[in-house]
Amino acid sequence: MSEIEIAATDGSGSFGAYVATPKTTPAGVVVMIQEIFGVNATMRQLSDWVAEMGFIAISPDLFWRQEKGVQLDPDAGQAQWDRAFKLMQGMDQDKAIEDLKATIVHARTMPGSNGKVATMGFCLGGRLAYMAAARTDADANISYYGVGIDGLLGEAGSIKAPLILHIAEKDKFVPPEAQAKILDGLKGREQVAAYVYPGVDHAFARMGGHAWDARAATIANGRSAELLARVLG
User: Fold this and answer.
1) Looking at the 3D structure of the chain, how many domains does it have?
2) Which pLDDT tens digit goes with each residue over 186-214?
3) CATH of the domain at 91
4) Among 61, 99, 139, 171, which one carries the catalytic annotation?
5) Is the pTM of this model over 0.85?
6) ∠59-60-62 over CA atoms, to 5°?
7) Which one is catalytic: 61, 99, 202, 213?
């Protein structure tokens, strides 16, 4: 496990990224896209899990344009949530996609990489994973409980690589009408698979979190692992 720096494509500086490496390389790379809490303990744990599956995991700091090295704890009180929402609202998501593009370019040629790259995002990162599917050349994309995707359906025609959406039925940030709009808007798109997990809330796959649901997370993670194995090798 290590920390690296990646140069931003707009010349404004560089951003950090956490890297977890599997026992055997060369391997495909998974760009792990943060929640609103930064590249925190959860994102590092998830990255380590991806490495245990045999892939290189790289989790870029997408809040760096506001503040570098943010690591918040969603279970540590309202102040952490308030700060997280402020950072999310202050994020230029178009710039974040450019940073993800830079990460994908780096991932294709980094030591140990076999040149194939997927994205996997959670919450805010789930939204960005959908945007990555529409705007980047990633070989596959996985979105866990992405927020606001119902407002991005106009970009669905640009999705060329496989995309999985994991949707929580009881997600307080993605109400039933938004879920219905997403499912209807993506219907018939061969490269997109959307799954709704009954009875679970937002962040059901956050290991050890308050909304953790072992059964739903295991099913979702199995689907993710199958796609990664098929596409990344």
Assistant:
1) 1
2) 999 999 999 999 999 999 999 888 899 99
3) 3.40.50.1820
4) 171
5) yes
6) 130
7) 202
